[in-house]
Amino acid sequence: MTSPTPLRFAILTISDRSARGEREDRSGPALAEAVRARGWQVAHTEILPDDLPTLRDTLARWADSDAYDVILTTGGTGFAPRDVTPEATAAVIERPAPGLAEAMRAASLHITPHAMLSRAVAGIRGTTLIVNLPGSPKAAVENLEVIAPVLPHAVSLLHDDPAAEKGHRL
After folding, report:
1. CA–CA separation, 29 vs 53, rounded Å?
2. To 5 degrees, how large is the angle CA 107–CA 108–CA 113?
3. Secondary structure of 136-159 as H, E, C letters
4. pLDDT(165) > 90
């Protein structure tokens, strides 16, 4: 199912080093390219450090703005002590969407056993879908490709589009 208007994405890179300008952000631009390649809109990108209150407040503010259909985060989903993206996301979502994270981990396990170390979560706040992706550019794009086919339908459902239910089997 395709959306009548392009999906609007915000991409949040979470990295202490990139936020301090010590390392180039490659994941955010890689995701932006993948989003645009599907004909979707990248409405906003930003880089923030691994700081739970800042991430939580930013995700809530972005979701509540109704400016974005999907917020993709990249980074901060592993086991390192400062990896707090899943906690920030869990603090702001109103309804979890575990199937998205499960599908990404399952597909990634065919590529690397390190997929088991992902703590990524996905969920809904208002009419915005928030999805955590890995910090590696390659892994972030691979994970986006796993869920991309369902995103237009998910957004249609979130916006209570009457056409969203067409094509469902009884």
Report:
1. 24
2. 130
3. CHHHHHHHHHHHHHHHHHHHHHHC
4. no
Would residue 128 count as lying in a domain? yes
Number of structural domains the chain divides into: 1
- Is the CB of residue 86 less than 8 Å from the CB of residue 51? no
Contacts of 35 (CB under 8 A, 6+ apart): 9, 11, 41, 42, 72, 144
Partnered with residue 129 across adjacent β-strands are: 70, 124
Task: Give domain status of residue 168, yes or no.
Answer: no
* CA pair distance 12, 21, nearest whole angstrom: 15
Assign residue 101 the CATH number of its domain: 3.40.980.10
Q: State the residue range of the domain holding 104.
A: 8-159
Quick check: is 164 in a domain? Answer: no
The single residue listed with the structure tokens 């991430």 is: 55
Determine, yes or no, domain membership for 116: yes
Give the residue among 1, 71, 11, 7 at the shortest CA–CA distance from 39. 7
Q: Could you tell me how far CA 26 lies from the centroid of its own chain? A: 16
pLDDT at 49 over 60: yes
CA dist., res. 74 & res. 29, Å (int) = 11
pLDDT digit string, tens, across residues 108-130: 999 999 999 999 999 999 999 99
Max CA pair span of the chain = 54
